[in-house]
Amino acid sequence: MFVDNPITILQAIIKILNFLKSGCQKLEILYLPRFIPISEVFAAELRSEISEALRNLLGNAPNLKDIHSSFSFDLKALRNCRKLRRLRLHFEPQQHWFEFLAKEKDHFQTHKYLEFFTVCVIDASNRIPYDDVVIILQHCPELTSLGFIESSGALSQLHRMNISPSELKLRHCCWRDREYDVTDCPSQPPDHGRHRIREAVMNYPLIEELDFHGCSLRGMPFLKNLRNLVYLNITFDGSESGIALYDALQAIGPQLKHLYFYTPSPMDLSLLLQNCHNLESLRIAADEFTVSANSAVSLPNLQRLAFNCIHENGRRVFSLLCDCNQLTELFLLNARYFDDQTLHHFLESNSLSNLKVAFLPLCGLTEHGFRELLLNAPHLERVRIFSSDFGRNHFERVITDANHRALCDKFILARDEFFERRNEHDGW
Known about the structure:
InterPro entries: LRR_dom_sf (IPR032675)
Largest sheet: 11 strands, parallel
Helix content: 25-40%
GO cellular component, one term: SCF ubiquitin ligase complex
Oligomer: single chain
Strand order of the largest sheet: 7-8-9-10-11-12-14-16-17-18-19
Shape: globular
Number of strands: 19
């Protein structure tokens, strides 16, 4: 076995790629996941060999539809892959990002099938080559997502080029309302960072899914114009005003089905959620928030609920929710606040009868509280649970004594949560 020897693994990958290159005409999926060897120095030459092997293979794979590679290669090798639908690069290309587009007489050809393109390792602090992204958008008419590539700058640029929104099929975007140095992008004016969110919304108000990182008070009002939005993952830069966010959610909240937000500033959670009554997925990460006295938020369609909150915040969320009778997934990170009393009060206004998966590490439930959970969750299939007082084995015995079918599964991880799964799928 060579599992523990990264050099041997790299050598094996090279052999496999070289073996496939002459018989890969029917290859449709190629997945080379993230791999970090122990010694980058010793692996450098092998990585170069892998890149060459990949280039040879891709040149003979005309039916390839999906590639996700953590190993770098010359993007020009993909020009023969005309049926490609998903392209995920887990490395930063040392060339123009659009080089995978086929050329004829120095003109890029339209890529008829590409639906998803992303570079997974771009850091928020790095400048995005918007000029490259614009060319990709212009020549890939079926593209629905750029993953987590910041795209507001490219959409803003398209707006100034008079490119019609009807020419794009983007459903998902990732935006960052921050200003970056644009000296390396001469096509952009010096004040571009101040207007790119506004212009992106003007140019493409029909997007359905938005990951909005570092949203500021300046960018928040434009959210109201995204009337097709059903998915919103939003974090704030610290300058946000609760009133501005309440105003935005009053406009788009009723249409949202999936909402994940993180705010470092105190906000009234009851006001945030009062217009989001059609949510199917909700994740809250907050250092501090408030809840209006005697308030309740009805979320009858909620299926997936996740918190990453400090002690008292978690209690407040559970006391706020009502009519949550369709829950199938419950993920609580830092769940000490989830004790017997919190569970009991939650069950007075909600139901766990459809719950299938529960992630409850370091929860505050006693044996009595866990029995109540099992009694009220007859369809629970998998649960990860332990506390400061009881280990997994103790809760396994409770499941057995209750004659419940649930499996105490230590392999349920935080990344199995709905929003985390989606992020991984899109190349986060």
